[in-house]
Amino acid sequence: MAAPSRGRLNRSETLWGYLFVAAPFLGFMLFGAIPLMGSLILGFTEWDLASEPEFVGMQNWSQALSLHIAALPVEIDEATGEPMYRCGRERVPQSQVGDFTGRIDERTNAPYVCEARYARPGSVLPRGFDEWHQFNLFGQQYIVGAIDPIFWKAMFNTFYLLLAIPISLVIALGFAIAMNQNIVGARLFRTIYYTPVILPIAALALIWLWIFNPTYGLLNYFLGQFGIESSVNWLGNAETVKPALIIMLIWRGLGYQVLIYLAGLQGVPRQLYEAAQIDGANAWQRFRAVTWPSLTPTTFFLVITSMIGTFQIFQEPFIMTEGGPYFESTTMVMVIQQNAFRDVQMGYASAQAWILGFIIIIFTLINFYVSRRWVSYES
Q1: Cα separation of 126 and 143, whole Å?
Q2: Mean pLDDT confidence for 167-172
Q3: Phi and psi dihedrals of 197, rounded to 5?
Q4: Structural domain total, the chain
């Protein structure tokens, strides 16, 4: 019987190769690429699921991204023509501010603080814009208005939560170096630190709700043992809610980061440490010249994955704070979810999702570009 020709064998191998890659390719097209392109098209439409999508061009993108910055003038007293100030609850012209100097506010038992009063935001912002933020620059008060100020506040909150990444990486590296030593119970410690990674996020959120409880929470109890104020409403205060979420994010991701760093440490060639010791390098010099350069690829990987994960954070603030107080813990994904499934603005939510996607891509590319300066790969 004649052996099959080489051409027939090549065609058969090629056919089987295409068959093997067909399943993941079709899966990607059906559940990835096609929905992705569909959401991009929806970003240029107005669609409430009950009617046909209506093409609106760049309206959704403009609504999400439009900003207006304007100088905010000081409020003027119509009777005297003087700038107005607020001293406690009193509205007084500038000439009467001196009457409050050194006086104690009976309501707060604190000295009066007089601050300039500014015109209402609506008097300087274009129609359709609402106040998002105010700032003072060189003695002039400015206001930043947006068509969708909640989206911009959510964007700021999401960027703020990125502060958890460098803090958690430093802590994880320290724990990894400690557990990489020949100490008793090292495997037990590795298991304990990795446990939060495998627990359901909903369960973790409920645990931290209990920890942050202002009345009987563990954190306030712990602070009280050191004489620190122990009645802080961590999740109900606009000034503490984001730091509280950062604490939780650090704890949640620490085990995974420690595990990755441990794998990186065990891959550092021992001969490099031996050579450094022969040259008389101390512990810090060995870390700076051997350990850290060897761990820069690992650190870069953790920076990228942690950044993408933080940009997509949703479950933890949704369960713990529902975005409050006053939208101070609302994230970009929470806004997208609310616009899509609560307000049924699918076109607007799709545009916001693509804006978030572009932000992630831009920051990832920036990190890849900057990594050339500090990431060291083995040649």
Answers
A1: 12
A2: 96
A3: -70, -35
A4: 2
pLDDT at 2 over 70: no
One domain, residues 143 and 233? no
Rounded Cα gap, residues 249 and 171, in angstroms: 13
Confidence class for position 7, pLDDT limits 50, 70, 90: low
Query: Which of 132, 147, 162 finishes a domain?
Result: 147
19-24: list long-range contacts, CB under 8 Å, 24+ apart: none
Query: What is the H or E stretch that residue 255 is in?
Result: helix 241-266
**What is the distance between the alpha carbons of residues 213 and 221, in angstroms, rounded to a whole number?**
10
Average pLDDT over every residue of 134-157: 94
DSSP string, 89-152: TEEEEGGGGGGGTT-EETTTTEE--EEE-B--GGGTSPTT-EEEEEEEETTEEEEEEESSHHHH
Q: What is the pLDDT of residues 293-326, one digit of tens each?
A: 999 999 999 999 999 999 999 999 999 999 989 9
CA 135, 137, 143: angle at the middle one, nearest 5? 35
One domain for residues 139 and 169? no
Full domain range(s) for residue 86 = 67-147
Sequence-ordered list of residues with C-beta below 8 angstroms from that of 366, at least 6 positions apart, any chain: none
Of 84, 116, 147, the one marking the end of a domain is: 147
The two structure tokens encoding residue 192: 């304990």
Kindly report which listed range (7-16, 18-27, 212-221, 362-371) carries the lowest average pLDDT score.
Answer: 7-16
Q: Between the CA of residue 171 and those of 165, 179, 218, 259, what are the distances in Å?
A: 10, 12, 21, 12
Q: Which tokens go with 45?
A: 């439409």
Nearest to 78 by CA among 93, 63, 60: 93
Cβ contact 61:353 at 8 Å: no
Q: Rounded CA gap, 378 and 269, in Å?
A: 11
- What pTM did the predictor assign? 0.87
Do 135 and 174 reside in the same domain of the chain?
no
Residue 104 pLDDT grade (very low, low, confident, very high; cuts 50, 70, 90): confident
- Which residue type is seen at 255? G
pLDDT of residue 363: 96
* Helix/strand/coil (H/E/C) assignment for every residue in 224-243: HCCCCCCCCCCCCCCCCHHH
